[in-house]
Amino acid sequence: MEQKSIACKKLKHNLKVCHLLRVYHNYKMTATDEIHRLPEEGEIIIVTVRQVTGHGAYVTLDEYNNMTGFLHISEIATGWIRNIERYVRPKQKAVLKVIRVNKVRGEVDTSLKQVSGQERKSKLIEVKKSDKAATFLDFIKSKLELTDEQVQEIEDRLLQKYDYVYDAFEAVSRKGLDAIQDIELSPEIKKAIEEASKRIPIPLVKISGIMEITLKKRDGIEIIKNTLANAEGTRAGASSTITYLGAPRYRIVVTAENFKVAEKYINNIVEKTQANIEKKHGTFNFVRQDSKKSHTFQQA
User: Fold this and answer.
1) What is the mean pLDDT of the chain?
2) What's the CATH class of domain 202-296?
3) Contacts of 104 (CB under 8 A, 6+ apart)
């Protein structure tokens, strides 16, 4: 009986030890995975310059848990460098390219001179979009009292359709909820996304011109009014307004999200208006005015 009791105690002890070892093993694997999450060679990254030395600079990789990387003086710029701090300074943000990764030692070598202008621009746009998206997701998390896991799920689903989370918000700001209609999200979340998207300024362009129209008929004024009324409105992502300046001059203003759309729309209006007026034996002349860019916010 005593031997059976001892054996039972040993079994319980072994099970407890196994459990503790399993917990420790899982923790160690998680910590190791976090430490050894390294960038790929050729990847463009954002770093913060930590320390400048005579032979280069030590940097922290912002997107990789602030691990340390090194920027050798030979990879800062072509030619002889008299003063490294002309190119990089402590606490400065920089866009670098990963040129070597030692996965065993966890070392990352980087280059500044190998980053092209286009690569730098694309990376900065990516970071800017990521920061803005994080702000919008924080707003949704607070408004709907969501957990981090639920926010991550929203992010994952938006990324199934869009390259960046911010692109989804921008699409909603332009097209409304139709932009995410086919994404599996609750009505409450979609409404919150729409509300957050109203903070995004929509870039617009405006082109305008003066139409000179004469029609020497008894009902000429009525014909001109009807013709111009049909030309006003919103179609295919552009809108037009026409105002009376005094006979025979009328200003037309077309607003759209880019110049290509605006040009196509105003040309279509001018051609149709000219055809209708000349069909009634009137005269028509059009003079283009300056174009300009602007921004507008959705109404809350």
Assistant:
1) 85
2) alpha beta
3) none
